[in-house]
Amino acid sequence: MPIGNVSDTARWVAVYRAMETERPDAIFRDPFARRLAGEHGEEIVRSIRRGRSVAWSMIVRTAVFDELILEAVQREKVDLVLNLAAGLDARPWRLPLPPSLRWVDVDLPGILQHKTDMMKDERPACRYEAIHADLTDATVRRALFARLGAESARTIVVTEGLLIYLTPEQVGALARDLSSQRSFRGWIIDLASPRLLKMMQRWWGKSAQGGNAAFKFAPAEGTGFFATFGWREQRFLPSGDEAHRLHREMRGMWFWRLVARLFSAKRQAEFRRMAGIVLLERDAPAA
To answer: What are the CA-CA distances from residue 246 to residues 25, 60, 62, 87, 279 (Å)?
Structure first.
């Protein structure tokens, strides 16, 4: 089975970054993506349903995360980027980051060791650290957050492509532990709606579940889910709107935009929030 475990999804998405990079009109460039994905990544894309036609959504997600991270570093004077379940993200090497910035990748040993081995001869733009850890282990997670929180004045947390593989209980525990650190000011996530979750399960459910990478998290209350745990929505960027802005819409999207005009205002709002990239800000430590 091409997807053997949840870490293999990082190879899957890396292929999409490589595809975008190789376009003459690329909206970002990741010269390391093809190397990091390897043949296994290509095998995953070839084997799953709609393997290449859905690339637009991951490409848009990558571009918007890039923008939000750079904005946080430049405007908010963030001194630490904490990238949880970092996978094969090569941003410390490919983004124009200040040398003084500290970037910490956290992930399971297998996938993170693969990345650091593949990137050992490349020089990151900033101070880079890789930490092997299982984020579902509460004791390990809290100790790590406490240490990094004490070492930073202003941190932005990044979880790209992580939350959907967790249960609501696991996401809530993660959110609470993050909000307990005063220096963790912002958190960038991607979020799916229950409607989109059902579509993903229909398209890729068997492949993902067989590799212990089942899709689980898509709260009916949207970003309201995080309010209980000390986070509030600062910005919601609908994936469809961002795809339109970046000229990376899925094929035939013009038709769905036309159909959406016939919906009620409530249905249109629901349609826009099927998927998005969200900037959360810490409200107050959860009780």
So the answer is: 11, 7, 11, 24, 19
| Rounded Cα distance, 64 and 20, in Å | 14
Structural domains in the chain plus CATH codes: 57-282 (3.40.50.150)
Q: What is the pTM of this model?
A: 0.90
Mean pLDDT of the chain: 91
Half-sphere exposure of 265 (CA within 13 A, CB side): 0
Query: In 91-250, which ranges are E strands?
Result: 102-107, 127-132, 155-159, 184-192, 231-238
Q: CA 66, CA 10: separation in Å to the nearest integer?
A: 17
Summarised one tens digit per residue, pLDDT across range 178-203 is 999 999 999 999 999 999 998 888 76
Span 272-285, pLDDT tens digits: 788 999 999 998 54
CA 236 – CA 188 distance, rounded (Å): 10
